[in-house]
Design a protein that fits this description.
Blueprint lengths: L20 E3 L5 E3 L1 E2 L10 H10 L12 H21 L6 E5 L2 H11 L5 E5 L4 H4 L5 E4 L5 H13 L6 E6 L11 H10 L3 E5 L11 H4 L3 E5 L10 E5 L2 H5 L10 E6 L5 E5 L13 H17 L1 H20 L4 E3 L12 E6 L4 H12 L1 E2 L1 E3 L4 H8 L13 E2 L5 E2 L1 E5 L6 H17 L31
Parallel strand pairs: 3-15, 5-6, 5-7, 7-8, 8-9
Antiparallel strand pairs: 1-2, 4-10, 9-10, 11-12, 13-14, 14-19, 16-19, 17-18
Helix pairs in contact: 1-9, 2-9, 5-6, 10-13, 11-13
The structure holds pyridoxal-5'-phosphate (PLP).
The site of pyridoxal-5'-phosphate has 13 residues, from helix 3 and helix 4.
Length: about 450
């Protein structure tokens, strides 16, 4: 069959919330510019429509004899196949539905053999950094080649036994792409396995498990335009089949019987069900599958090309503003996704983000992005203080150690990044137009009333 070339995507994909108006502290209101895709991306309209189309047919999965239960079970298992196709899984790989990337990596960390040594760069998101029982942390590399060399040296010097490398595909701080297939080759050459944290990669780039030769991959639905509480762990089944179930309960157990000594004997399921105890999130799985289909149909080459254009606009725009420093491990020309973090001379990042929100209706993120060691590596901080994911920690000389992150994707119109670039320039050159920002004790977005026109969503603040 001749291959179909997808039509170029010149327009953003339709997402929910594109017409939402927000109040400005300076008076009036504006259309919200959602530039925090790396935290949670808006739902694709297509995902929302697919979920709505299924909603009347919602039923229990793997549990009911009724027609809607059967239909829901079928939909859930189809979602697994769609995700396997989207990820380019091998025939014998498993696709397990989880709650998120964090959940997926914790599941895998519980499933690895007891004596498995994990190797993780200190630059990882905390979800990849923290779940492992035995772990060797690797110093932040300053080039992709150095990352591969560092890993090779660490693996060559390790004691015998199973090993697992965990690496991100695209950094949630710098947006930079990591040399995944080279790291996979290095891992395998030294008898180790590798899991790819694709939380930031999958929404922006095709992920091909077989071609990259990674053993597992994890990602989250809410970053992939499918915010219904689901995530995925996909990959090799042997360690997963040999492990105790991640959660004990119904759905994971095939047979349970009382023993004469008063306890119970449990025979656990194999396959994905082993680690999916409890009633599965069929809407979440359906939403992820819908997003995978939507992105595939839009065509990644076109999506990537459009996002590169937006990224260049942001990079060029920020480069023109004095005192703005974009954070990077691998240098300004490193290939990246639409995620950039920066600091501004003389500004606390939380105040800067608050001013973008309050004066321009732009939603970005500030803080340490659940990647404290990476922030210290790129900002040159030496402090061991750890704030929360979004909070600032103390940096050298007591100055706050945090940054502003702007991130965008398939649903972002050009106007949003243009407004952002203009706002950064205006704020740096002209200062804030409201009293809330520079020098105030804390950003005060609460100076605007938070009114959400949905039941249960109206705040009295
Ligand atoms: N890995 C990376 C690279 C991330 O950016 C994030 C979230 O920001 C995670 C893992 C954790 O994802 P989640 O919060 O959906 O579990």
């Amino acid at each position: 069959m001749p291959s179909v070339t997808p039509a170029p995507v010149h327009e953003p994909l339709p997402v929910l919330g594109r017409d939402v108006r927000v109040p400005l502290i300076t008076g009036g209101e504006t259309t919200y510019a959602a530039l925090d895709y790396a935290a949670s991306a808006p739902a694709l309209q297509r995902v929302w429509d697919d979920v709505a189309a299924y909603a009347p047919y919602y039923g229990s999965v793997h549990r009911g004899a009724g027609y809607l239960s059967q239909l829901s079970t079928d939909l859930f298992e189809n979602a697994r196949r769609t995700v396997a196709g989207f990820l380019g899984c091998r025939g014998d790989d498993q696709v397990i539905f989880t709650r998120s990337t964090t959940d997926s990596l914790n599941l895998l960390a519980r499933a690895v053999p007891d004596d498995c040594q994990a190797f993780v760069f200190e630059t990882e998101h905390h979800a990849s950094l923290l779940p492992w029982r035995r772990v060797t942390y690797l110093a932040a590399p300053r080039t992709p080649e150095q990352a591969v060399r560092t890993l090779e040296q660490a693996l060559a010097g390790r004691p015998q036994g199973p090993a697992l490398v965990c690496v991100t595909g695209a950094s949630n701080v710098t947006g930079e792409l990591w040399p995944v297939s080279e790291l996979a080759a290095a891992a395998h050459a030294h008898g180790a396995r590798i899991v790819l944290d694709a939380a930031q990669l999958a929404p922006h780039h095709p992920v091909d498990v077989a071609a990259l030769d990674v053993d597992w991959v994890a990602f989250s639905g809410h970053k992939l335009y499918a915010p219904f509480g689901s995530g995925v762990l996909a990959g090799r089944s042997d360690w997963l089949e040999a492990a105790e179930p991640y959660l004990a309960g119904g759905g994971a157990s095939r047979r349970v019987a009382r023993r004469a000594d008063g306890g119970v004997d449990v025979e656990w399921h194999g396959g994905p069900a082993r680690h999916e105890a409890g009633s599965p999130n069929v809407i979440g799985a359906h939403a992820i599958a819908s997003a995978c289909t939507a992105l595939t149909e839009a065509g990644f080459p076109a999506l990537v090309a459009r996002e590169r254009r937006l990224t260049a606009k942001v990079q060029e725009g920020l480069a023109r503003v004095p005192g703005v420093r974009v954070l990077s491990l691998f240098g300004p020309d490193a290939p990246r996704v639409g995620v950039l973090s920066f600091v501004v001379d003389g500004w606390d990042s939380s105040h800067f983000a608050a001013a973008l929100s309050a004066e321009y209706g732009i939603g970005v993120r500030d803080g340490l992005f659940c990647a404290h060691p990476l922030l210290r590596a790129v900002l040159g901080g030496a402090s061991d203080e750890a704030g929360e994911c979004g909070a600032a920690a103390a940096g050298p000389g007591g100055r706050s150690l945090n940054a502003v992150r702007v991130s965008f994707g398939a649903g972002t119109p050009d106007e949003h990044v243009e407004r952002f670039v203009g706002a950064v320039g205006d704020l740096v050159r002209g200062g804030p137009r409201s009293p809330l920002s520079r020098g105030s004790a804390a950003p005060a977005p609460h100076l605007r009333p938070l009114r959400v026109p949905v039941p249960g969503g109206t705040s009295g603040r």
